[in-house]
Amino acid sequence: MSGFDRIIVVDWSASKVPSPKKPSPDAIWMAVHYAGTTVCTYHRTRHDLIIELCAHIDDALSKDERVLAGFDFPFGYPSGFARAVNGSDDPLALWADLATHIQDGADNANNRFDVARDLNAMFPGVGPFWGCPAALADADLPAKGSVRHGHGMPERRKIEAMIPSAQPCWKLYTTGSVGSQALLGIARLQALRDRYGAALSVSPFQAPDTPIVLAEVYPSLLADDVAALQGADEIKDRAQVRVLADALAGLPRDVLDAMLCEGDTQEGWILGVGHEAALRAGLNNQPPPLKNDCFALPSGIEWTPVDAALRDLKTRLGPVVGTQNIAVADALDRIVAQDITAVRAHPPLPNTAVDGYGFAGGRGDGLHRLALVPEQMTAGTRPDVQVPAGQAIRILTGAALPDGVNTVVLQEDVTRTGDSIAFYGPLKDGANTRKAGEDVKTSDVVAQEGRRLTPADLALLSAVGVSKVKVRAQLRVGVLSTGDELVAAGAAAGPGQIYDANRPMLLGLIARMGHVAVDLGQVRDDRAALSARLDDAAADVDVILTSGGASAGDEDHVSALLNEAGSMALWRIAIKPGRPLALGMWRGKPVFGLPGNPVAAMVCTLVFAAPAFAQMAGSTWRTPTGFNVPSAFEKRKKPGRREYLRARIRDGRVEVFASEGSGRISGLSWAEGLVELPDGALHVKPGDPVRFIPWSGFGV
Ligand code: AMP
Ligand code: MG
After folding, report:
1. 484 Cβ closer than 6 Å to some ligand 1 atom
2. Is 486 in the pocket of ligand 1 (CB under 6 A)?
3. Does residue 328 sit in the same domain as residue 216?
4. CB 480 within 8 A of CB 344
5. I need a surface site. Which of 408, 527, 558, 591 has the fewest CB within 10 A?
């Protein structure tokens, strides 16, 4: 993967007023690819974009991370322009000069036409800049390009000659208005140069070996891919920055580094031109990033079957956490980030599986008598002994076989007299020994990427000489309770109030899943308070699990807020217990909005959140492990919904909790797992096999 921790792509705009409040085309869009996720944001002004961009860069610098930021406007002009304006071919001197003349307000009001007019005045004839509203046109700045003459500048840069669809940088107005974008953009980027100094370089004018690298991009390079990957309701500008960020993030480090060094160091260059195939490969290299619309549901489907919902989660969610190297001793329950191979074979040498006497070759029927050599072989030693043919050596379990030994007779089968032994055959050649590498060979994969390490895995890794492992950083899951009626444990509860039962339960489940459970507390049914809490949470955790307020009622503010953020889908899943799950993105972080009802909250967590979180944590998708057990109950079930019953096994039969009431927390505590009844109609009679999934089968 690329040598950058964050890849940012910006679709720039030269608008003179703020873009509409509602996310719109032809405005500023930014895609930030970070830790496996690409998040897109919409910005109404250049000022707003720069603030957000600097926040990303500052955060990255504070974490020692590198940032590549791409902008879709020319970083330079045809050669000769900088010298004509500034007396030097240095494009960055031109940047500094332009920045002193451009005024660009927080409300997008700017003086680009005036600056272009002044620049034109430095050239003979008319031009090279052109294009402005008719009322602003004059002898120095023509409205039409065709009236320009005699200014002496080439119409295009070399790179633009390679891309006929790119607009020339002299054109200030109407389609593309690339000239205006460049004047305003260069001034803003010069401000970044001033702010970040030596930490920032501009490709290809400078070597891209700084923490922050700026580069010119052209999202239309991947037009076909964008068309294929654009979401149904997604604005094209958004899809363009998103897809290009993904493509760049998927490039191998050396490939991206080489691309950043390419091009004309006076005129500038468009990153990746001529390497479209590599970019496309980069796109395919990506783990599917979490998109803002990753929870969108196909329209028209009333009730999504459980399996379809799980399939969707499986295909849309990918790892969102980075990797780290840790000692095997600390790696219990951690998720392997890269296949682990044996450093050493196991066993490393042929050895004996029993206490006994070793010699060469098997023996036939009858009595055998062998002289003993004086040495003794114990585990952990390997004296340089050669056992002569026809003689034997005393050898203890685990000891490496000395030269001349490949067979061991059990000491219980031997009579020892002085320095010889006697025993009865037959004994097979190689009996009671272990071959080198018979368990694991050097370089065998001993733990695959995505595996959650068990105590036995730690034994295996240690046995084959592995001491450090590359694992995923732990997923941080925030747990938030919502509802005016909730009181935290220990507080005084007024009439009508109830204690918050979900939060301790969900925090416990998350911890059992091997993630970091972050207590986000509880919040009233108040949109502003909830929104503020989600903001804080999104900055701290990888995924947010809320309970309560997830339906479509008046007080269901979780779904209302996610809806407003434009990223929510209410998953009506055909499951009992469980009302809709509200799934959405909040400031780039997925939110799982669970029903408030504790039974439904727990079932939905086990069935949906557990596998989804496992996958986000870098683990392979896990299907709960259940098994069939004769039923101790009778139940008729209607078709249409999958049902989960609180259950436990007693005397070889599975019994279910007396009440199916979904508010009965006592039933959750009584149960040791769930019985899963299929979607169709069913009549379970005592003794019929039903599928029981113990809590451990859900990974908790
Ligand atoms: P809601 O999904 O917000 O409509 O809540 C559904 C039911 O679950 C209501 O009876 C709530 O009082 C209850 N509930 C919501 N949150 C919790 C919680 N954290 N602990 C216990 N019960 C809850
Ligand atoms: Mg509520």
Report:
1. no
2. yes
3. no
4. no
5. 527
**Closest ligand 1 atom to 600 CA:** 8
Kindly state whether residues 526 and 570 are assigned to the same domain.
Answer: yes
Of 597, 665, 666, which is best to mutate to test ligand 1, by the most ligand atoms within 8 angstroms of its C-beta? Answer: 597
In the chain, how many domains are there?
A: 6
What pLDDT, in 10s, does the model give residues 526-551? 999 999 999 999 888 999 999 998 87
**Residues linked to residue 569 through DSSP beta bridges, in sequence order:** 583
Q: Taking a C-beta distance cutoff of 8 angstroms, is the pair 12, 69 a contact?
A: no
Task: Quick: pLDDT tens for 261-291.
Answer: 999 999 999 999 999 988 988 787 655 456 6
Q: Which ligand is nearest to the CA of 485?
A: 1
Q: Are residues 393 and 514 in the same domain?
A: no
Ligand with smallest separation from the Cα of 546: 1
Please indicate, yes or no, whether residues 327 and 447 belong to a single structural domain of this protein.
yes
Q: Is 474 exposed, middle or buried (0-12, 13-18, 19+ CB in 10 A)?
A: middle
> Which residue stretches of 296-437 are H helix?
306-316
- Per DSSP (E only), the strands in 55-98 are 67-71
102-129 tens-digit pLDDT: 999 999 999 999 999 999 999 999 989 9
Ligand 1 pocket, residue 500 CB under 6 Å: yes
Element holding 471 (H helix, E strand): strand 468-472
* Whole-angstrom distance, CA of residue 549 vs CA of residue 141: 59
